[in-house]
Amino acid sequence: MQVAVLLLLVAALCSATLALDNGEMRVPPMGWLAWERFRCDLDCEHDPKNCIRQNLFIDMADRLAEDGWRELGYVYVNIDDCWSSMKRDEKGRLQADPKRFPRGIKELARYMHARGLKLGLYGDMGTHTCGGYPGTTLDNIDLDAQTFADWEVDMFKFDGCYSNATEQEQGYPLMSKALNATGRPIGYSCSWPAYQGGLPPKVNYTELGQICNLWRNYGDIQDSWDSVLNIINWFFENQDVLAPAAGPGKWNDPDMLIVGDFGLSMDQSRAQMALWAIMAAPLFMSNDLRTISSGARTILQNKMAIIINQDPMGVQGRRLVKEKIGIDVFWRPLSKNASALVFFSRRTDMPYRYQTSLSKLNYTAGSYEIYDVFTGKSMALKDSAPFVVSVNPTGVVMWHVSAPAKWNPRHFYKGGRRQGPAFDGGEENAVPPVFL
Ligand SMILES: *[C@@H]1O[C@H](CO)[C@@H](O)[C@H](O)[C@H]1NC(C)=O
Ligand SMILES: *[C@@H]1O[C@H](CO)[C@@H](O)[C@H](O)[C@H]1NC(C)=O
Ligand SMILES: *[C@@H]1O[C@H](CO)[C@@H](O)[C@H](O)[C@H]1NC(C)=O
Ligand SMILES: *[C@@H]1O[C@H](CO)[C@@H](O)[C@H](O)[C@H]1NC(C)=O
Ligand SMILES: *[C@@H]1O[C@H](CO)[C@@H](O)[C@H](O)[C@H]1NC(C)=O
């Protein structure tokens, strides 16, 4: 484990200096993105009210600002495909569809900024967006970047429908340069690898880290557990390629959080939140914040899961163990020698009592303070002590594990509550104060 930590640290430090130098997204970005939950959702004929698309983004902004999301870090409000007019304006610039965005994009950006939020916009490297709206061909890149900057956009997602590999190879780096040349810091999300199978040799993660802040590696998420599990499997099967690519300012993006929609149980929702935190993934919810259940809200607003996701060291976690009995153990090193563990069950029968120990997971000798992320319970645990976690089918148990402290036999437990003072490790051993 120590060797692994060192290698990861070295990788993170080496690559940190090579990240896209726009100062953006030193920790994974958080916010809301329209696509999975709302798609184009344009039915102007039968539902004229719903046709005024800007209202959706204003509603979500109000919810983020008023319901405690913004303070937790969820600050982006991101528009996806189907926002623009079918035609560029007389000067060749993209323009918002006036029926759907009567206020225009710039006023929407200002609405966000007035509330301490940020606006994200969508475009496509190619002749058309995936939804058939005007795309950004190579000759339009500078103009479009300037248009987004003029509108005070804070983040730009560049999709890749209707272009080929050669054009993408030119277009994605050119857009990075063009955004930089506007002088406005704009977080840059590249869908490029998702169009090239997500793996080397077709995908060069060194280059991506130099030109993009985040990138979609794999297919779109859908509102189902099958889809979430498929994404989890792909990302962790390819962790040796993907994890070293991530770091402050450059993130793998397994796609949106669908917690709060229709497809996931509460256990599956906790599993998505936990594993997105382990992966240092961007946290873009795609749900309806006006009607979200309190259960889903509690999961998405879990402070310790967010602290783990937002760890400043920015090392992407990995799977340590994949047991034949259907339990996977995931681990992410955190700053101050802390770490996170996730015990995940692929089983479909009943809660499984999984036994292991920290030393089996290669933790160094010492005693640790464990904080259970979803129950809020704490306990002390010696590296050599066997323990049992009960993991629900398609669910997780997630722990924040403090830095190791020397084992002190004075600290024992009675009735689940700690007796006596904290560990010898003092502050280093402490669970971070919840929250920030
Ligand atoms: C543009 O790139 C330069 C050099 O990498 C960097 O110093 C600067 O902050 C960037 N500006 C923006 C707006 O991204
Ligand atoms: C990619 O598209 C461009 C422009 O349409 C075309 O000139 C080029 O031949 C295409 N390249 C490949 C490899 O298909
Ligand atoms: C990947 O990109 C980096 C940075 O642009 C470059 O130095 C390297 O040669 C590329 N690797 C391959 C295999 O093309
Ligand atoms: C982390 O652990 C290493 C090795 O045990 C130690 O040298 C280092 O001082 C620790 N760092 C912090 C911030 O606790
Ligand atoms: C612990 O380390 C050993 C030796 O490096 C390795 O073989 C084993 O896979 C590791 N176990 C875990 C759970 O990482």
Automatic annotation (TrEMBL):
A Pfam family recorded for this sequence: Melibiase_2_C
EC number: 3.2.1.-
GO annotation, biological process: glycolipid catabolic process; glycoside catabolic process; oligosaccharide metabolic process
PROSITE patterns associated with the record: ALPHA_GALACTOSIDASE
Transmembrane domains' residue ranges: none
Major subcellular location class: other
CDD domains documented for this protein: GH27
First-level EC class: hydrolase
Annotated GO CC locations: lysosome; membrane
Signal peptide residue numbers: 1-19
Subcellular location, record wording: Lysosome
Homology family: Belongs to the glycosyl hydrolase 27 family.
Assembly and interaction partners: Homodimer.
Name this polypeptide is given: Alpha-galactosidase
